[in-house]
Specification:
The protein is an alpha/beta fold and 338 residues long. It is built from eleven helices and twelve strands.
């Protein structure tokens, strides 16, 4: 296997950021440290490959951003916030929307690397797979540039995670609904990603602690069109028609929750007197329905700001935490009564 900057950092006893600065000729490296790194490079005949920066080239001040689907409300806002922060700090960005196919993701990641970017930001937890082999392409990329994860967690050298504690946030939302007197509630989700599974576990834990059934009796996966509120409302109606009784919905996404609101309105149920709904992400949809939607604010603006600050410090050669976790906040509006 070819030598990577991670290998060089280990052999020289310095950080990968320091190796990158030596390779880029960006300065801020002591002569003794620079000699140590260059000695390793010469000893092992290291030559940067097509995905690494050439010897002596300075930073292009460009950051790659990868997402699965830029039409998703959470992702679209995240990209906007990230690009604004990058521009304010003198960086340009290259955006690729990869979809959900692992092979396509790998190809796009390699494409971005070939542009000699300073770092890559992966937006959303869909990029992290449950097995190490499936994440090998991320490991390879991290051997060349810092990889920043937004709302995902992955432990590997030169990978930095900034995320919301989705499990604890959903746990608090479910607990609040149970305390309000609603025990027959259902959970709707549409993603088995790292974040999606953490939210599900938060709901299940709250139900377990209150000795309430939590799955599979009242957990439902929606695999239809995420942009069709009508289809989501029909999906909830089908759940009710199957014999499941419920007076509350917790949803892993605001769009799913709004579909639940539309279902209740079709049934002539009063919200929140007869029926309660909580969404997640605190998106623009929360104020676009009547009544306005109670939702968990996952601190997206705070997360994106922290991610960029971490990135800038890593590029400056500073040691930074590998993981920063924020707590979500339940924002009560008209679909609940606590």
């Amino acid at each position: 296997m070819a030598l990577t900057i991670y290998d060089i950092s280990q052999k020289a006893g310095v950080s990968t950021a320091t190796v990158s600065r030596v390779l880029n000729g960006s300065g801020n490296v002591s002569p003794s440290t620079q000699k140590k790194v260059m000695d390793i490079i010469e000893k092992y005949d290291y030559i940067p490959n097509a995905f690494a920066r050439g010897m002596g080239l300075r930073s292009l001040k460009t950051i790659g951003i990868l997402c699965a689907d830029s039409s998703d409300l959470f992702t679209a806002k995240a990209i906007y916030l990230l690009e604004q922060e990058l521009q304010a700090n003198g960086y340009e960005s290259l955006l690729c929307c990869t979809g959900y196919n692992p092979g396509v993701r790998k190809n796009y990641l390699n494409l971005i690397l070939s542009k000699k970017v300073d770092s890559i930001i992966l937006v959303g937890s869909n990029f992290i797979a449950p097995t190490g082999l499936e994440n090998e392409y991320i490991n390879e990329a991290a051997s060349h540039v810092p990889i920043m994860l937004l709302n995902a967690s992955y432990g590997y050298p030169n990978v930095y995670s900034t995320l919301c504690d989705d499990r604890a946030s959903m746990y608090e939302a479910a607990s609040a609904m149970i305390r309000s007197g609603i025990s027959d509630l259902i959970y709707l989700y549409n993603s088995g990603s790292y974040s999606g599974l953490k939210k599900l576990r938060g709901f299940q834990t709250a139900m377990e602690e209150n000795n309430l059934p939590h799955s599979p009796e009242n957990v439902f996966f929606y695999d239809g069109n995420p942009d069709s509120i009508e289809d989501i409302a029909d999906f909830v109606r089908q759940i009710a028609d199957s014999g499941v009784t419920f007076h509350g919905i917790l949803a892993a996404d605001d769009a799913l929750a709004v579909g639940g609101v539309k279902y209740a309105q079709r049934k002539g149920l009063r919200i929140p007197e007869d029926f309660s709904v909580i969404g997640y992400n605190n998106s623009i949809l929360t104020t676009c329905c009547t009544p306005e939607l109670t939702s968990v604010d996952n601190c997206l603006e705070t997360m994106t700001h922290q991610l960029i600050q971490t990135l800038l410090n890593v590029l400056a050669g500073k040691e930074m935490p590998k993981k920063v976790v924020f707590s979500g906040k339940l924002i009560e509006r008209g679909t609940t009564h606590f």
